[in-house]
Specification:
The structure is a single chain. By secondary structure, the protein is an alpha+beta fold. It has three domains: about 80 residues, Uridine Diphospho-n-acetylenolpyruvylglucosamine Reductase, domain 2, CATH 3.30.43.10; about 110 residues, Uridine Diphospho-n-acetylenolpyruvylglucosamine Reductase, domain 3 (2-Layer Sandwich); about 100 residues, UDP-N-acetylenolpyruvoylglucosamine reductase, C-terminal domain (Uridine Diphospho-n-acetylenolpyruvylglucosamine Reductase, domain 1), CATH 3.90.78. Helix content is about 25%, strand content about 25%. Strand 7 and strand 8 form a beta hairpin. The longest helix is centred in the last third of the chain and has 19 residues. The radius of gyration is 19 Å and the shape is globular.
Length: about 325
């Protein structure tokens, strides 16, 4: 099917909102000014399934966009369809579980849990991005991973079928999951939490958020930590970068944060400024430390020569090259 005809079909689907030439600045935490040529917002699971099935059947690339907290756009215009999960934000309590739809903000889930005196995920307080993205990446901070509290994940597969996968079958590991390996789109996540004392839960959540503030994580646009750690080899990316005194190093409007060596911040940077700085840091660390750092952020470009690749299969590929990422990004 012709691309224009295919997109015309989806535009006419009931339950799908279509917008043309949408600025993605507010949809990514680097505040990059990329423009989506075709921007889709599915309003329900049936419509989402139908459009994914059609796109996959016709082998069309697409980008799933959630909170945009772990993504880097290199192009000014994104020509492939962008599918935004922002309509899927419902959070509901079911006994000792919380069911969260993928577009919900992680910070909103923490607030909901606190309100209902449910403990476990306070470490996510203040973490930018969506629950879908955090699950896809198996977000980790303060010694905890989100997978430790996940019961099951609802997904749509390549054929458009919606079903749930148990935690054990999600292949969670350090910053990895089955969702990086298979063509699954995350729709909802069920958390297993325990009842606790609301005052203590709120105190813990505020403590984590205040810690992020004290490290100036919100001062400038960023995507959080840029490089993966390799705990098996006792390699902590920020420490390695610090040993080379690279804080403050810059390319254009991109610079290594003076407060956190594994953060690259933007002061009106372009995606290519940030990407060049990433490569400069990797080259320097490789030359002087003989360590190959692997970026954890997802890089989107229409030019495969621009992009090496991310850790789609994670630590077993941590020293491998990075393949082009054009789809399944949350």
């Amino acid at each position: 099917m012709d691309i224009d005809e295919l997109l015309k079909d989806i535009i006419n689907y009931e339950g799908v909102i279509y917008k043309k030439e949408v600025s993605l600045k507010k949809y990514n935490t680097y505040a990059l000014k990329a423009v989506s040529k075709h921007f889709f917002i599915p309003e329900n699971i049936a419509a989402f399934s139908k459009m994914l099935s059609l796109l996959n059947e016709n082998k069309m690339d697409y980008l799933i966009l959630g909170g945009g907290s772990n993504i880097l756009f290199l192009d000014d215009v994104i020509n492939i369809p962008v599918i935004y999960t922002g309509f899927f934000t419902r959070i509901q309590k079911l006994s000792d579980k919380i069911i969260v739809y993928s577009g919900a903000k992680t910070s909103d889930v923490v607030k909901f849990a606190c309100k209902n005196s449910m403990t476990g995920i306070e470490f996510l307080s203040g973490l930018p991005g969506s629950v879908g993205g955090a699950t896809y990446m198996n977000a980790r901070c303060y010694g905890f991973s989100i997978s430790e509290y996940i019961d099951q994940v609802g997904v749509i597969d390549e054929s458009g079928e919606y079903f749930h996968i148990s935690n054990e079958k999600c292949n969670f590991g350090y910053k990895k999951s089955i969702f990086q390996q298979k063509k699954y789109v995350i729709i909802d996540v069920t958390f297993n939490l325990e009842l606790g004392t609301k005052k203590i839960i709120n105190t813990r959540a505020k403590c984590h958020k205040n810690d992020r503030k004290s490290k100036h994580q919100y001062k400038y646009p960023s995507a959080g930590c840029v490089f993966l750690n390799d705990y098996e080899a006792n390699i902590v990316a920020g420490k390695v970068i610090d040993e080379l005194a690279l804080r403050g190093t810059s390319v254009g409007g991109a610079s290594i944060s003076p407060h956190h060596a594994n953060f690259i911040i933007s002061k009106n940077a372009s995606g290519k400024d940030i990407y060049q700085l990433i490569n400069n840091v990797r080259d320097k660390v490789l030359a002087e430390k003989n360590i190959k750092l692997c970026p954890e952020i997802k890089i989107v470009s229409s030019d495969s020569s621009d992009v090496e690749n991310n850790h789609t299969s994670a630590l077993d590929e941590i020293y491998g090259l990075i393949n082009k990422v054009k789809e399944k990004i949350l």
